Amino acid sequence: MARVISVEAERFPIAGVFTIARGSKTEAEVITCTIGDGGHAGRGECVPYKRYGETMDSVLAQIEAMRAALEAGMGRAELQAAMPAGAARNAIDCALWDLEAKTATASVAALLGIAPGPLETAYTLSLAEPETMAAQARANAGRPLLKVKLGGENDAARIRAVRDAAPDSRLILDANEGWTDDNVAENIAAAAALGIALIEQPLPAGRDGKLRHIARPVPICADESVHATNDIEALVGLYDAVNIKLDKAGGLTEALLLRDKARQCGLSIMVGCMVGTSLAMAPAVLLAQGADYVDLDGPLLLARDRDPGLHYQGSLVSPPQAALWG
């Protein structure tokens, strides 16, 4: 029986507004790829990202361009060679993993040889004025790990406001490339004084060489500067950690290789996400087993998730059940 491929654009409302240095949005726009074969079907979700030159239309077109090859039986290895890293390949790759597991009547975790458990995820606070971010922090001060979006003027005040409002939470700062050569050292020093655990992507990708020449009392994590495995070696000496996202890496297959290469190079591992549903997070939960930092809160930011979705208990996220993925 020939494979059946379906691709769907979907929108899920965000609870309120999600704001980072590059702008705000009120809904998550996702693309779901489903690959059916002999009574079994696998699904994968991706989130096209404008920062990387992706749109809903361009990613839909990339997936459609692979339809004939997928219908003819293309597997994950061939997909790696046929498509570049990015959201489109992620949706297909994760659908192929899900299909493989359901066909084999074994979980993806079993195929990977792991016994996954619950993970503690960060919870993200949107960029806003210091007093507004303090209110967000107070409302979530019971969470053990908060991720603080920065990248505007007066970030030191935002850091202090959040720290004062959530004194017992570990904090990750994410500047989304929003700091400059003029303020990066000052902001890192302010973060160190307030006991910040990690800083993500303070400077723009490709213009981050200054990190090699300034004090880094807080570990610095690459996000926009790292996509796939071949990016890793150039980051050694600039960064202390890497944020691996399935949409950047182009799927679980590449992300696993990227994680292993980063560890070999002495870099700490964060597994992160775009704002998507539980279907996008599910494979990332398996990738994140043993990670140093986990940021898989996408569904917690939505007004409505998929049903069934992942199970979240506070900041603990459990591995996916087969009805969702894997």
Automatic annotation (TrEMBL):
Transmembrane segments: none
Catalytic residues (UniProt): K149, K245
Domain of life of the source: Bacteria
Positions of the Mandelate racemase/muconate lactonizing enzyme C-terminal domain: 130-221
GO MF annotations, alphabetized: magnesium ion binding; racemase and epimerase activity, acting on amino acids and derivatives
CDD domains assigned: L-Ala-DL-Glu_epimerase
SUPFAM superfamilies: Enolase C-terminal domain-like (SSF51604), Enolase N-terminal domain-like (SSF54826)
Presence of the UniProt keyword Lipid metabolism in the record: no
Coiled-coil segments on the chain, per record: none
Gene3D superfamilies, A to Z: Enolase-like C-terminal domain, Enolase-like, N-terminal domain
Cofactor requirements of the protein: Mg(2+)
Record's cofactor remark: Binds 1 Mg(2+) ion per subunit.
Binding site for Mg(2+): D174, E200, D223
GO BP terms, alphabetized: amino acid catabolic process
One Pfam family this sequence matches: MR_MLE_N
Enzyme Commission (EC) number: 5.1.1.-
Keywords per UniProt: Isomerase, Magnesium, Metal-binding
Similarity-based family: Belongs to the mandelate racemase/muconate lactonizing enzyme family.
UniProt-recorded name of the protein: Dipeptide epimerase
